[in-house]
Amino acid sequence: MCGIMGYIGSRDAAGIVIKGLECLEYRGYDSAGIALAEGHKIGISKCVGSVANLKAQLEKCSLNGKMGIGHTRWATHGGVTRENAHPHVDPDGRVVLIHNGIIENFHELGEEFAQKGVRFASETDTEVAAFLISSLYRDDPLLAIREACARLRGAFAFVILFADIADRYYCVRKGPSLVLGAAGGEAFCASDVTALLPYTNNVLFMEDEEIAELSAEGISLYGFDGARKEARLHLVDWDASMTSKGMYPHFMLKEIEEQGNVLRRTLAGRLEGGVINLSAEFPFSDEDARLFRRIHFVACGTSCHASAVAGRLADRYTGLDVRVEAASEYRYGNVVCDEGTLAVFVSQSGETADTLAAARLARIKGARCLAVTNVVSSSLGREVGAVLELRAGPEIGVAATKTFMGQLAALTLLTLWIGKQKGFLVPQKEKRLCAEMARLPLKVEDILAQGEDVRKIAERYQDLSAFLFIGRGISYPVAMEGALKLKEISYVHAEAHAAGEMKHGPIALLDKRMPVVAVAPRDGIYEKTLSSIQESRARKAPIITVASRGDKDIRRFSDDGFFVPETEEELTPFLTVIPLQLFAYHLASILGREIDRPRNLAKSVTVE
Ligand code: M6R
Question: What is the CA radius of gyration of the chain?
């Protein structure tokens, strides 16, 4: 969950490391720190708060160096204090280390050191790793790291400086991602490829249980067994401009507004001649597809909501036994999952720990696995092997928006493709859906053009502290996504319920201080949703609706409404989610929240 950046080369390392940390700050922003090596002298600066604080602190001191490592923290073990910020150093000052992950046996190891009279300066699990490596280090850094890794349990990405080695630094991966880059006498490492893009897009995604040595000569790669491995770089087709805010006040708004183009990219080449064509990307034969009996969609957070939309489509079009589950539940459940199961793992980052663990489990059980991700070379992509790419471009805002849109598109294509192989999607319906999917980007942009109206509505609700979102069928996951967006960036309480469940409890909450946000496009169950709206209104709840344009009936029961263009009912989530993203954005902005970096959250949840 933390952000890591490392550099060695001929330039001033501080500037490069700070710039990298700024780019990675979405991964954690409790505290930050940097270590700079000038010859054998290593200087450290750390502080509580953002990378901007660290930058200001650094300007006041005279730390320099051509080699440096930096960290932006999302606290797990130990509070948010300067002492707990990384880098951490062993008592003799021989090893300086930053870490992303969790060391599970740090208590046990800490005890051993404590018995020898060693005192820890922090409450973190990380410091023990610096102590351990230092205690094992004689003159071979690789050996010390390997021996330490053999004793550490848990998940860790480390970047390590040795005080007596001035021309190299080391990276270790077991779990959380680390990406390396090398070009023109410089070598970089970062938690995420976006931080490397200003310097190179030739990168190496470290595999689990690898150690890398980075120097001006490039990258040397080793396994935990000490065997040398080939350091093969890959070209990523993202560029640095994709990771800048441009003229937008926040990444979230920029990313919401990119959604028309995200759809164009995700659909490109996959909708041809009015039919769906995934034959080049779907890794299983037509025969395999016909033999599937079950389909599982497994994901976390927003990705799970996109999966729930896909689950409803799969119910309708595939004839398969469908299961949609949060990865954190799936991995510990006794799920029936075998060679007749297509298990689809959905993750924008491809680094979410629970989703990765669930994918490993399904693979072991013999399921046919597919990753739907924005980062093809992510851990999930490599774990699963078969990937359907979102093509949404890098997403920086912690609140997922454009990747949700990409997921809806990729999962709709996938589900309909399977339905077609299974014979449940008839050609006429396929043609209608394809023609409408091709029109979606313009419809999305039409809604976005009314963003200011959403702001005016948000202003009217700024004093309320709780919202209830409802929807039925395919609109229920949209309600869940709307509630998640609102709570994560505005810190206003929001919960979502299936509209039909209101009478079974949630309706007790309603009064004039509890608005109901109803997702109610014109679909086959529209009238049922309308009844739930009326019941809520009878309890004096203010009603905000997301409805189809031209729906006069619903206006009569709404205090405020967002209207979206008509579309096929299976595709309504592509449109109805947008006003909810904008509502959350504007409410958070009116409340003065840190929109791109909401408190307590990190973009990639790489620990359990
Ligand atoms: O990278 P992933 O899609 O696996 O991430 C899953 C969730 O952590 C993520 O969707 C999270 O819920 C976002 N903050 C939602 O805005």
Answer: 25
Cα–Cα distance, 501 to 468 (Å, whole number): 12
Query: Does the pLDDT value for residue 63 go beyond 90?
Result: no
Q: Whose alpha carbon is nearest atom 11 of ligand 1?
A: 301
174 assigned to active site: no
* Alpha carbons 424 and 317: distance in angstroms, whole number: 5
Q: Where do we find the tokens 């999302």? A: 74
Q: 328: CA distance to ligand 1 center in Å?
A: 13
Give residue 99 CA to ligand 1 midpoint distance, Å: 22
Q: Does 400 sit in the ligand 1 pocket, CB within 6 Å?
A: yes
Which residues make Cβ contacts (< 8 Å) with residue 299, sequence separation at least 6? Answer: 306, 307, 326, 327, 345, 346, 347, 352, 355
Q: Which is the closest atom of ligand 1 to the Cα of 403?
A: 3
E-strand stretches of 419-529: 466-471, 493-498, 516-520
Q: Which two tokens stand for residue 261?
A: 């183009």
- What digits encode the pLDDT tens for the residues 429-454? 999 999 999 999 999 999 999 888 99
> Of the candidates 421, 464, 455, 448, which has an alpha carbon nearest to the alpha carbon of residue 577?
448
The pLDDT assigned to 245 comes to 85
Q: Tell me, what DSSP letter sits at residue 230?
A: -
Give catalytic status of residue 23 as yes or no.
no
pLDDT digits (tens, 9 = 90+) for 219-232: 999 999 999 999 98
CB 20 within 8 A of CB 2: no
Which of the listed residues 27, 251, 298, 302 should we mutate to test ligand 1's pocket, taking the one with most ligand atoms within 8 A of CB?
302
Q: Is 352 in the pocket of ligand 1 (CB under 6 A)?
A: yes
How far is 179 from 235, CA to CA, in rounded Å?
Answer: 12
Q: Is 307 in the pocket of ligand 1 (CB under 6 A)?
A: no
Q: Which of 2, 149, 337, 434 is catalytic?
A: 2
pTM, to two decimals: 0.83
Q: What is the pLDDT of residues 559-584, one digit of tens each?
A: 999 999 999 999 999 999 999 999 99
Domains and CATH numbers, the chain: 3-242 (3.60.20.10), 246-449 (3.40.50.10490), 450-595 (3.40.50.10490)
Q: Is 194 in the pocket of ligand 1 (CB under 6 A)?
A: no
